[in-house]
Structures are given as structure tokens and as C-alpha cells.
Amino acid sequence: MGFRCGIVGLPNVGKSTLFNALTETAAAQAANYPFCTIEPNVGNVAVPDPRLQKLAEIAGSAKIIETQLGFVDIAGLVRGASKGEGLGNQFLGNIREVDAIVHVLRCFENDDIQHVDNKVDPIADAETVETELMLADLESLEKRVPNYVKKGQQGDKEAKIAASVLGQALELLREGKPARLTQPKDAEEARVFAQAQLLTGKPVLYVCNVNEEDAANGNELSAKVFAKAKAEGAEAVVVSAAIEAEIATMPPEERGEFLSELGLEETGLARVIRAGYKLLHLLTFFTVGPKEARAWTVHSGATAPEAAGEIHSDFEKGFIRAETIAYDDYVALGGEARAREAGKLRAEGKAYVVQDGDVMHFLHS
Question: Which residues have CB under 8 Å from 253's CB, separation 6+?
């Protein structure tokens, strides 16, 4: 499954440079002027997971297939976007289709790169984008909620649920707060809230784009962003888009030494993915065999049949049981056969909740 992230931010903060680096492609035109990205570029990248390589070695798998993460590079937003200024309407439409917002913030000084407001202030930049998203949501809900209230009073059960949960979101927006602070009281309200596709209902990952020398530890500007993220229950990471762009051009075997010289243990891509997984409450399970070792992504709390459905819908419909081995047991015992002999292979039924790192084999009718 993976997940789909929309990369957003003001013009000239490094969105397209980061996108190019993350997807190792030059699909997005990185230029020093607003709106160089007009159509949203979409790129899928393999999610790095060293566990998958280890499992493949043990099983002698002929092929390794990572789970995929989708990035959408969306045109830069300006004030007035909620009213259609700049590329506002297109921006807002594209962002509704993603699972999470990766908000790139400029946390570096460089006189050669123009800032749309002629100053470097990541908090103000974040508030500019958030304000436009809230205004768009506010306008949308002020039209929709009264209709839901009216239909709910006439006995429409679905409309009554929508009136309740979206009414709460509307009140938050009127107070200048994002809709993601809404707290659905049950699964039905959560479903209706998700279907509303509110722009400020999306979880947010702040990416602090810093200079090369600040890539390891960040700087005063990124520290302010981290404080903001903590206060909001969001996530934040420090990335140098310039470094990521350089890494993308290197052979894989040279990247480790390059990162080490900069005091980095991993790429920005790895940090973004890990933070994104945490933000969206995702986890990874594996299927392993002689033909292939493969990683799959499900939401935390997913049951064994739901995990089977990620492979094929028929597996979920005809689910019988899942033969499951914890990753640590699979590695320590050297594979499925010895794990079975040691009693570490478990037969799990429909109620089993998948754990991160589970190695699974599904039996179905």
C-alpha cells in the first residue's frame, strides 16, 4: 500500500529539488522563480528496509520487492490561493488527493535564492500555507454543514453524522485551528470525516530544508519548526535538499561513505519515510520465499485478513489462517523450517492484529 504524500510549501523553498532527489529523477523542473512546477509531478520510490535484504538472504529469494511510497510535487502556494490566486485552485485540488502533507519550509539563508516574502521565516511561511488551507476548508464547510443539519433533522442518519463531526471541524476552523484537531467519537464519524477530504484534516510532516553544514543537527530556524510540530502533534525532520540531490547522482555503494563524512547516518529519504510511517500509523509485514522477498504496508491495528487483502482481495475474502513468524525469530533461527521446528511459527486467525516485522504466509479458500 505505502502512502501518498503531497509536497507543499511557498515558492522557492526547495520542494522540487527535494522531490527530484527523493525520487532520483529530474521530472520536476527546479528553477529559481515562482510556479516553475505547474503540473503536479508524481514519483514512486522504494521504501528502504534493511530487514528485507536479510530475509531474502536467509530464504535465498531470487528477487526483492520493496513497498512503495508516492510523492506528489505540488505547485507553490501564495497568499490568496483559497480565492484562486496564483495556482491556488489547482494546488488545493491536488492536495485533497494525498494521504499526508509534507510541508517543506526554508530554514537556510541564501541571498542568491529569492524568497517570495523577501525574508526567511519558516514559522510565518507555515502559517501562510496553513491559513490558505483553513480558509478553503472554512468556505467549503460553511456551505455544506447547514445542509447536513437540515437533512439530519429530517431523519437522514448519514447527514446527522456528518453534521456532528463536520460541525465540530467548522467550529475549529472559525477559531483559527486546523480541522485535524477534530475528534470523531466513533468509527462512523471517522469515516465521514475522512471522506470530507478537508485540506487541514490531513496529517502534516514538516521538512526543514537546511544548508549542508546544518544537515546533521539542524539550526535555530529548524528548532522553531520542531517546537511548532510538537505543539501540534505533527512530525518534523531536518533535510538538506542540496545533499539529497547530490546523493541521488551517486552509485549506491558510495553513498554510505559520503553520508558518514557529513556526520549523517542515513539519507533524508529514510528520515522522511520513517516520520511519515509514524505520522500515519503504518507498519510493515513481509512475505518470503525462494521466488521473492516482499515488503507490504498496512495501517497499525490491521487484522490478518486485512493484511492478506493487501496482496489480493480474494485472499481476504477466502481467508482461513495466517502462518506467522516474528522477524527476530525468523532471523535468529535461520528461516521458516527451523522456526517451525522451534515452535515459533504461529497459526493466527481472523482476529490477529498484525505486528511490525511479521513474516506471513496466508492460507485461503
Answer: none
pTM over 0.85? The answer is no
User: What would the pLDDT profile of 172-197 be if each residue is shown by its tens digit?
Assistant: 999 999 999 999 999 999 999 999 98
C-alpha dihedral sign at 111, 116, 119, 122: negative
Note whether 80 and 14 are within 8 A (CB): no
Taking the C-alpha atoms of residue 213 and residue 87, their distance in angstroms, rounded to an integer, is 34
| Confidence bin at 152 (pLDDT 50/70/90) | very high
Bridge partners of 294, per DSSP, are: 65, 287
Whole-number Å distance between alpha carbons of 137 and 237: 27
Say whether 340 sits in a helix, a strand or coil: helix
Cα separation, 93 vs 211, whole angstroms: 32
Count of beta carbons in the 10 Å neighbourhood of residue 336: 19
Grid cell of 340 as nine digits: 517451525
Contact yes or no for 361/323 (Cβ under 8 A)? yes
In sequence order, what are the residues at sequence separation of 6 or more whose Cβ sits closer than 8 angstroms to the Cβ of residue 248? 20, 21, 22, 24
Contacts of residue 146, Cβ cutoff 8 Å, sequence gap at least 6: none
Q: Which of 300, 298, 323, 301 is nearest to 311 (CA)?
A: 298
> Which residue has cell 530487514?
51
For every residue of 192-233, DSSP letters joined together read HHHHTT-GGGS-EEEEEE--GGGTTT--HHHHHHHHHHHHHT
**pLDDT value at residue 117:** 58
Sequence-distant (≥ 6) Cβ neighbours of residue 83 within 8 angstroms:
135
Question: How do 68-73 and 4-8 pair as beta strands?
Answer: parallel
Q: What are phi and psi of 224, to 5 degrees?
A: -65, -35
Instruction: Name the pairing type of β-strands 204-209 and 4-8.
Output: unpaired
- In the numeric block, the cell 500500500 is attached to 1
Reference 101, options 121, 73, 120; nearest CA is 73
Cα 319 → chain centroid: 29
| Each residue's pLDDT tens digit, 316-343 | 999 999 999 999 999 999 999 999 999 9
% of the chain exceeding 90 in pLDDT: 58
Contact assessment for residue 45 and residue 276, using Cβ atoms and an 8 Å cutoff: no
Q: Which residue has the higher pLDDT, 209 or 23?
A: 209
